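Quick board copy: two proteins, each given as sequence then tokens.
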Amino acid sequence: MTLTQLSALATLSTEGAMTPGALAAREKVQPPSMTRVIASLGDLGLVDRAPHPTDGRQIIVSLSSAGQALMESETQAREAWMTEKLSHLDDEQRATLRDAVVILTSLVEND
């Protein structure tokens, strides 16, 4: 599993089903690159492809049940890792991280 594949799965997980073009734009990659990513994820059984309801030239990509299970597993593993790491910090260090999260969130939301 590549980082690009995981990122595409994460976007589908948080934002829901979308066209390949919308997914490419969200991931900031060229549509042909996303087409290859979607094909590989489809081969792995992690995404489903369905006809677009109003545009016969398009498809809608969504997480399959296997893709949803993978994303839930990845999320749980990341949360467990972070919880363990944070448990070793003192109150001042955790407060600094909270402040940094506010700043980083502001930067991302203004993108």
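And the next:
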Amino acid sequence: MYKRCIMILADGARADRVSAHLAAGRLPNIQEIFLKTGSYHEGTTVFPSTTGPAYFPFLTGCYPGTVNVTGIRWLDKRQFAKPWFFPKRRRSYVGLETFWINHDMDRSIETAFDIFPRSYNIFNSVNKGVTFSHNKTWLMRLWYWYYAHLTDRWSLVEQAACEKVLDVIKKPFDFCFAVFPAIDEYSHLSGPLSRATDDAYFKLDDYMGQIRDALAKKGQLQDTLIWLISDHGFSATHTHFCANEFLEERGIRTFFYPLIFKKNCIAANMMSGNAMAHLYFKDPSGWNKSVTLKRLVDLYGTMVDDLVREPAVDICAVRGEEGAIEVLSKRGHATVRRNGDLISYDVQTQDPFGYGKLPSIMSSQESLSRTYGTDYPDAPYQLGQLFQSDRTGDIVISAAPGYDLRRDYEVPEHHGSHGALHRDHMLIPIGCSAKLTGDVIRSVDVFPTTLALMGQDIPLDIDGVSRV
């Protein structure tokens, strides 16, 4: 039984880069903590594979669709149909709106901060349940982020994160969640395989060593559960595609960030991680109605087919009739339906993911195990969880590797992107100082596994399962 838990989230860490550095002996502290006595897995994150929504699984055991926070940016069509002063009409968790993320989630869902009374939070905007005094970076997070954004000194932020974790270790505590952002930021700035990004992995290993040594000095190493996790992977970006221009060229006036005061729009584009986007369309009868693939064809002819043919677009998932999800790619067309733990996957022409033969109905775990080794691990089930939320777009775009979906208004220019369904974005490192069971693990499994290892009851209505 573990008495306390520390979760270190290395934002943007790719599973294959961590595995390669471990194999080469370049991460000795991480190797000692997780390979000698614990567990290390290349697990799967959630869709969208992006900062913020992909934090929720670790803290709640729930998918973004379950929590009802479906991206860094989203639009709620039912609320958007109301006057401008109504809350929760649309969001962008970039800047000051990040403070709304805890109010936007399903408030009935408990977080780890709710469960463990002596919880601490460091550089994490998802912090429902943390007391003000234990939220170590509530206001200063934005200052650190903007300073580092302007100076590229993300090492300063990570040094502060480490120091704050070490300060927590000096106190009685039950749970500590800390975000280390440098890998993500340098992957955006210089690419996920750059020297600057690799240096961030090596520095993270040093911080892990400092945390381990501080616990050992207090005699708490053996009864402290330690996790090293990531919210998403990355791919290098060589070409930017603008979905706004694509729609505007077809006479579809589009609302998007940062131009949020445009009037008379009949579509909205909400992009996350630069490689995933929600597209919302106004039905002639009003905004508060879902627009299906059939309706889009009636309204805009070949627009969806034209979008799928764009080189930047890998997958288009479109609302179908009676709750179906129509999955389109240059390879083919399939229909996905989710019914509780079951997912149905019916190929209409050719398989849009290129899977080959799959059962038409699969359990959640079967869907994961049968697709894990492909270019699109867990994609059917991830689409099923996302489309359960009304805040999901009428079309969801997953970008092709090498492309992203935001050409303008991104300063500095991004050379790495994430958010998509491709394995480069979906596979993440999951290190645990305890032994875990199972070959494949999802990020939603971390939360119930933590509760089990710390002697807590696991909520019945979450998406993850315990791996002990």
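Board note added afterward: The chain has a mean pLDDT of 94.
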